[in-house]
Amino acid sequence: MEVVIVESPERAGRLVADAVGELIARKPDAVLGVATGSSPEAVYRELANRVQAGELSLKDARAFMLDEYVGLLPEHPQRYRAVIDRQLVEPTDIQAENVHGPDGTACDLPKACADYEQAMRDAGGVDLQILGVGSDGHVAFNEPGSSLASRTRLKTLTRQTRQDNARFFGDDLEAVPKHCLTQGVGTLMEARHLVLLAFGQAKAEAVHHMVEGPVSAMWPATALQFHPHTTVILDESAASRLQLASYARQAWESKPKWQGL
Fold it and tell me: By its UniProt entry, which PROSITE patterns does this protein fall under (predicted)?
């Protein structure tokens, strides 16, 4: 893993937007993997700023979402497709029809998952996948104990994850869905570049296990250690438990800037 420690989420947002811009310059119809939650918000703000300034265009890009709640109506503001529409589709020029997510309202959920996997394969796979990590080490909604070879499927959310997400539902735990559709760990590992963002002290334990701990299904994000191109971007608080934090700083500072992420 390449670990980058930055002073703020805004700085992280600029770095990831740089990587997206370089990818789009090479491949205008690139496939982005997009995540929800608070971690990627700075990335979407920076992409929107660049599109609005005429410095970047996503009009030919395609995007696939990580996951979706099961059972939320299309008009629900916390449905993940609604969140991605607000944060990415509306403020940029990416085409709404080029943004795809698993169908959490489908009558046949296993078929919806299989269809989603096929759609990603048909698109040629994800070029750059944006990720966050849960305080319990989940990545996408692959909760502790998930198979590290898993594919897109129905998952039951842990109480910890629902408590973490209750802030988006007015701090009402009972309003947070109990199930979701999520890309599996095995699915994520097929993306060509993984970029994971984590900020705040609450993520420090998960980051420590993910970067420096043994690979374990109890901390699903540890599987990213096996990926050939994983970039982990942290603020000081999220990096506070890393034993090799000083080495990571030195490695990043000495890296030729033209190499990018």
Answer: GLC_GALNAC_ISOMERASE
Task: Given the residues 46, 117, 143, 164, select the one marked as catalytic.
Answer: 143
Res 24: pLDDT:
98
In a domain, 69, yes or no: yes
Asked if residue 233 has pLDDT above 90, the reply is yes
Catalytic: 138?
yes
Query: What does residue 187 show for φ and ψ, rounded to 5 degrees?
Result: -65, -50
pLDDT by residue (tens digit) across 19-58? 999 999 999 999 999 999 999 999 999 999 999 999 999 9
pTM, entire model: 0.95
Catalytic option among 46, 127, 136, 164: 136
Residue 127 lies in a domain: yes
Q: How far apart are CA 206 and CA 5, in angstroms?
A: 15
Residues 6+ apart with CB under 8 A from 140: 35, 66, 67, 131, 182, 183, 184, 185, 188
> From the candidates 117, 127, 138, 193, which is the catalytic residue?
138
State the catalytic residue, choosing from 67, 103, 117, 235.
Answer: 67
How many domains does one find in the chain? Answer: 1
**Nearest to 238, CA basis, from 261, 221, 214, 254:** 221
Residue 129 phi, psi (nearest 5):
-110, 120
136 noted as active-site residue: yes
Residue 169: which domain range? 2-216+224-256
What digits encode the pLDDT tens for the residues 114-172?
999 999 999 999 999 999 999 999 999 999 999 999 999 999 999 988 998 999 999 99
| Catalytic (active site) residue 229 | no
Mean pLDDT of 211-236: 97
The per-residue pLDDT of the chain, averaged, comes to 96
261 lies in some domain: no
| 209 is a catalytic site residue | no
Query: Domain for residue 27, yes or no?
Result: yes
